[in-house]
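Example (one chain per record):
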Amino acid sequence: MPGKPDKPSKSDKLSLCSAQLLCGIDGGGTSTKVVVSNLEGQVLHSFQTGTINHYGSGIPLARETFAAIAAELIAKCDCLPGTIFTGNSALDGLADDVLVGELTDGVFHPSKVVFHSDVYIALLSFTMGKPGAVLISGTGSMACGIDEGGVYHTAGGWGQVLGDEGSGYHLALEGIKAALRAHDGLSEPTLLVDRVMKFFELEKMSDLIDKIYNPPVKKSFIAAFAPEVDKAAADGDSLAPGLLECEAEWLYKLALAITRKCKTRNLGYYGSVLNKNDRIRSKLSALLSKQDISLQLPRFKPEIGAVIGAFHESGHRLSDSVINNLSKYS
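Predicted structure:
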């Protein structure tokens, strides 16, 4: 009797993919979430791994992470998904095949691989590919949307040097500046002075110079101070509420810009500032309501938005049962 055929080796499996499986990847600045579903929208496997942001980590480390993702997919699914849709925080739009090849180094071959921005998959998690827009305010700020013709539009997203108004970084920076002005006697006293001293563990205010410039700190280091501005407002500070209101007004301008570009009143929101800061979100909602625009919480998480992208790219319809199954992911 002939013996049983050998099981395919890992290298053999690398050349196999299944059109019955779809994969969505949400690549943030510090971590990456991966979700695999079947064509019925049932999530079969999900996991978290390191960053794929090649600007922050460098291309070699991003390649290592993609290789680890491929290995995990093969180990759990016995092959690669037929379509892999990735939202990458290092991108501002659709990536070309050259960049995809440079980053993945062929580890997903022969799957169809699509790279887009992380804000785009956040948009898909809200609109599911239909016309609409999403406003994002976390460490940074940006808005994007799709119009009736399927054209993708953006507003904001210029980074902390050129913009980022309405973001956690911008709020934190304005809070720190307000504290420094009060410390120098250039403005009225504020609780933010004491909050800056404690938050950054300073013995004297001038120590902040070394904290910020030597060596230069990351954007997230400054953005982490944003909740302190909200706390100061809650404690009755006279300056902090105005700073929060200013950020809400910046977000209002950003929201109007993207909804006008997309000719829609369908607006979702994402990001730590809008999710956690009730004062900013309430002020923004009040401003938008005057334009008959309601701020809505998206139905899905961004990684499911990436799965939705994979559905579209593979040509499979998002039926009601598929949407219901995807809704079970948590």
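Caption: The CA atoms of residues 121 and 305 lie 5 Å apart.
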